[in-house]
Amino acid sequence: MEKKIDFSKPLIVLAPLAGYTDLPFRSVVKKFGADITISEMISSNALVYKSKKTLKMIEKSPSEDPYIVQIAGNKPELVRDAVEILNDVEGIDGIDLNCGCPAPKVFSHGSGSNLLGDLKKLEDILSTVKKYSKKQYTTAKVRIGVNEKIPVDIAKAVEACGVDYVAVHGRTRAGKYKAPVDYDAIKAMKEAVSIPVIANGDIKDYEKAKEVLKYTNADGVMIGRGAIGKPWVFYQLKHGVEDITNEKKKEIILEHYDAVLDFHGEHGVVMFRKLLHSYSKGYTGANEFRDIINRISDPHVMRDMIENFF
């Protein structure tokens, strides 16, 4: 079987972000340069109980290749059932276990970053994914600890489960999204294991991505919040361009808008408002623009507004 992921050069990966990395957004970053796209985090529970919304969340765009679905779960049996459902879905190249989500709701259920506090349990669950998955790749996304930093222990536990790569957000669970990212911890993980390590956390632009790759010697960068409102960072990294024209930005914004309408229907206009709030950051007249678009729900009027503003 031909390997779809080429680790010989640094990978540019879109991080899973709840409420943002839906199919339209993923198809846009894929088109403009992302090597791997990953679904939003899917609850194993919701998958096993065949929630309609969840099944829609794992649909992918034809261009997403390779495509990885991220699941969260706190029990081996439940995770096994979720994996078996995904086995029957065409077009998924890998299953990623979320071992990093700091959200209280996820943490209190015993999944996400909770697993970092019980590495034995993490190994049980991750090994279950590896054992039952018929997909080409098994991967994990982690943080560097719950309260204490234990990056090397985590890296070794994950490696022991036979994963193809690990993506690491360089903060503890306690660090949420505010504490400084510990790139030394990522570097230490990279040195401790032989599997590829992908660096994540505050990689917000072209410069930073280059710097983090060089500093940590990681096998790639994973960009999440840094891509919201600036998905062209993937284009910049893919093509090695530091400057990006406003024309290119506008092309990407319109492409994203069309993709959202395509996938979500007319409701996409309302959904796109929060994205336009991000896109318009730093532009003259952004506040007035936001006030106006917050009242628009007609797809054609909205498209004209975007055309004229950007």
TrEMBL record:
Q: Which reaction does it catalyse?
A: a 5,6-dihydrouridine in tRNA + NAD(+) = a uridine in tRNA + NADH + H(+); a 5,6-dihydrouridine in tRNA + NADP(+) = a uridine in tRNA + NADPH + H(+)
Q: Which PROSITE patterns does the protein's record reference?
A: UPF0034
Keyword tRNA processing in the entry? The reply is yes
The identity of this protein, by name, is: tRNA-dihydrouridine synthase
Domain spans labelled DUS-like FMN-binding: 14-302
Active-site residues, as the UniProt record annotates them = C101 (proton donor)
Q: Which PANTHER family match?
A: TRNA-DIHYDROURIDINE(47) SYNTHASE [NAD(P)(+)]-LIKE (PTHR45846)
Role noted for this protein: Catalyzes the synthesis of 5,6-dihydrouridine (D), a modified base found in the D-loop of most tRNAs, via the reduction of the C5-C6 double bond in target uridines.
Q: Which cofactor does it need?
A: FMN
Q: Which family does it belong to?
A: Belongs to the dus family.
Molecular function GO labels:
flavin adenine dinucleotide binding; tRNA binding; tRNA dihydrouridine synthase activity
**What is this enzyme's EC?**
1.3.1.-
Q: Where, if anywhere, are coiled coils annotated?
A: none
Residues that bind FMN, according to the entry?
Answer: Q70, K141, H169, G224, R225
Q: Which SUPFAM superfamilies match?
A: FMN-linked oxidoreductases
Task: Enumerate the UniProt keywords alphabetically.
Answer: Flavoprotein, FMN, NADP, Nucleotide-binding, Oxidoreductase, RNA-binding, tRNA processing, tRNA-binding
